[in-house]
Design a protein that fits this description.
With 389 residues, the chain is α/β, with parallel strands linked by helices. The protein contains 13 helices and eleven strands. A nine-stranded mixed sheet has the order 3-2-4-7-1-8-11-10-9, sandwiched between helices. Strands 5-6 form a two-stranded antiparallel ribbon. The longest helix is centred in the first third of the chain and has 16 residues.
């Protein structure tokens, strides 16, 4: 597969943007990315969005946002894969440019959650679950994550407080990120005492929904050095799926889609899992992070939680395994279908050496991974500063 490169990035803060529409959010990030890339008119636009139809009563976002950007006539589509929509759109753009039929592709991830509130938002998000066998019977994403976490705690004899290092690290990093939704630091010991959302998932465990948009411009690896002083190369791109419902998996505590997509992406990049300078994972819930680390081969089965020990010090910006370097979904906020594009922007800034207070020193390779549902879909990318094959 021919390599491609990210030549432009842009993003808005993740927040409650009450006075801004979905299309305006998307345009803000897109204009930043196009200006950063020095591109006026991309050949194709991919819009990543998970819940526009239920949050905003709006579908057909590709044409809507292209029109708002004065890009009428440009090929444009919406890419939807639940919370993995951003990663899926990035992969679609990568494949399109790698094919040679597209010179430049604009990827925009956007989500506008505050158009709907409280129980209505929970119900709107339930379209990521099985309508016939899960959401119809009262299941929600936090509830299913709670069942997964409870099973893990029982199976491996783990106490709830053992997961707190993931959230402590995310909030410590997020406190340095001006675009983060929650910049507060968490106190050690507070995690297990937080109000419960769906026991044992608490307010300090699950990532908060937020409004936001992020965008990248992708070009071929061959043309990238002429277009950008600091292109970031996509050396690996892979996606996989698992059984849709966790109760139908052969082993619900093994994220097979994560394992498969990681292995493929690393193989394409000619790299090993330990070669990465940083990892941006799908930390919508701490159990997702622990199981992802295990499926990727960074921890043994049942031992992913151990990496969060010592108040998450090993996961920090100067630790041996930096994750959630800008706060992840937990502190930066979770703009659902846009989350995977935020990962691409944040990892690109790290590799450019432009992450300011959130910089991982000497970063040269990054793994970004975006999950849909409870890892029903997994999309993994390997980004590097090196454009050689």
């Amino acid at each position: 597969m021919t390599n491609t490169a990210i030549i432009g990035v842009g993003m808005t803060p993740v927040s409650e943007h009450w006075g801004v529409s979905l299309r305006e959010l998307a345009a803000e990030a897109a204009i930043q990315a196009l200006q950063d890339a020095g591109v006026q008119r991309p050949d194709v636009v991919y819009v990543a969005n998970a819940y526009g139809s239920t949050f905003n009563s709006q579908a057909h976002l590709g044409a809507l946002i292209a029109d708002f950007l004065n890009l009428t006539g440009v090929e444009a589509y919406t890419i939807e894969a639940g919370d993995a929509s951003g990663g899926a759109a990035l992969r679609a753009a990568h494949l399109a440019v790698a094919s040679g039929d597209v010179r430049t592709a604009l990827v925009i991830g956007v989500e506008k959650a505050t158009d709907i509130v409280a129980s209505a938002r929970v119900a709107a998000r339930n379209i990521s679950l099985d309508a016939d066998y899960e959401s119809r019977h009262g299941a929600t994403l936090p509830a299913m994550a709670a069942l997964l976490m409870r099973r893990y705690m029982y199976e491996f004899g783990v106490e709830l407080g053992a997961f707190e290092g993931f959230s402590l690290n995310a909030h410590l990093n997020g406190s340095l990120n001006a675009n983060a939704m929650y910049r507060n630091k968490l106190r050690a010991g507070a995690f297990a005492k937080a109000p419960m959302v769906a026991e044992p998932v608490s307010l300090f465990d699950g990532a908060p929904d937020g409004d936001g948009a992020a965008a990248v411009v992708i070009a071929s690896a061959e043309s990238a050095p002429d277009l950008s002083p600091q292109p970031i190369y996509i050396k690996g791109s892979a996606a996989a799926t698992d059984a849709f419902m966790i109760q139908e998996r052969a082993d619900m505590l093994s994220f097979s889609a994560v394992a498969a997509s990681t292995e493929k992406a690393l193989h394409q990049a000619g790299a090993s899992i330990n070669d990465m300078s940083l990892y941006e994972l799908n930390d919508a819930f701490t159990i997702m992070t622990a199981l992802s680390l295990e499926a990727m081969g960074l921890a043994e089965r049942g031992a992913g939680w151990q990496l969060a020990g010592n108040e998450g010090a090993d996961l920090g910006l100067t630790g041996k395994l930096p994750i959630s370097t800008f706060g992840g979904m937990k502190s930066r906020g979770n703009p659902a279908g846009a989350a995977g594009v935020y990962q691409a922007v944040e990892a690109s800034l790290q590799l450019r050496g432009s992450a300011v207070d959130n910089q991982v020193q000497g970063a040269s390779k990054a793994l970004i991974q975006n999950l849909g549902g409870l890892a029903s879909t997994a999309v993994t990318h390997i980004l590097t500063v090196d454009g050689t094959s």
